[in-house]
Design a protein that fits this description.
Blueprint lengths: L4 H18 L6 E7 L6 E10 L3 E6 L6 H7 L4 E5 L2 E11 L1 H4 L5 H9 L5 E7 L2
Antiparallel strand pairs: 1-2, 1-4, 2-3, 3-6, 4-5, 5-6
């Protein structure tokens, strides 16, 4: 399932500011800090985050043209803020949801599989 672009724009303006206050404390949520590939500006995007053995998998719900995804794939610095921790991430790989599923830790795998985003997943590795 892909979320329509107008919903993405609404979330960016209305939902995301409120969600950023909650994501550091809720399971399977985090805030991804990334740099704009054109502007160089730092952004903080709340996302569904699933732990893997050596990093995290993030479900892509708004399509491959999502700004946050394009920024991370462009190779700029990427930091995950989750549960009061700051984790530097690198080596972004865009894969199918099915390909990333076995990488997700068993504790989070069921929620990962039942969540309706099925377009792709971004897999990132901890670098520090």
């Amino acid at each position: 399932m892909r979320v329509p672009r107008p919903v993405a724009q609404f979330n960016r303006l209305i939902t995301n500011p409120a969600a950023r206050a909650l994501t550091p404390w809720l399971p399977c949520l985090g805030t991804l800090e990334h740099t704009g590939r054109k502007s160089g500006k730092r952004y903080h995007t709340p996302l569904l985050i699933f732990e893997t053995r050596d990093g995290f998998a993030i479900l892509v719900g708004y399509g491959h043209e999502s700004d946050w995804l394009q920024n991370v794939l462009a190779g700029g610095p990427t930091v995950l803020h989750r549960r009061g921790n700051r984790v530097v991430l690198g080596t972004p790989r865009l894969v199918s949801k099915a390909e990333a599923a076995p990488l997700v830790t068993p504790a989070h795998r069921l929620f990962y599989r039942v969540f309706p985003y099925n377009e792709a997943a971004l897999v990132l590795t901890k670098t520090s």
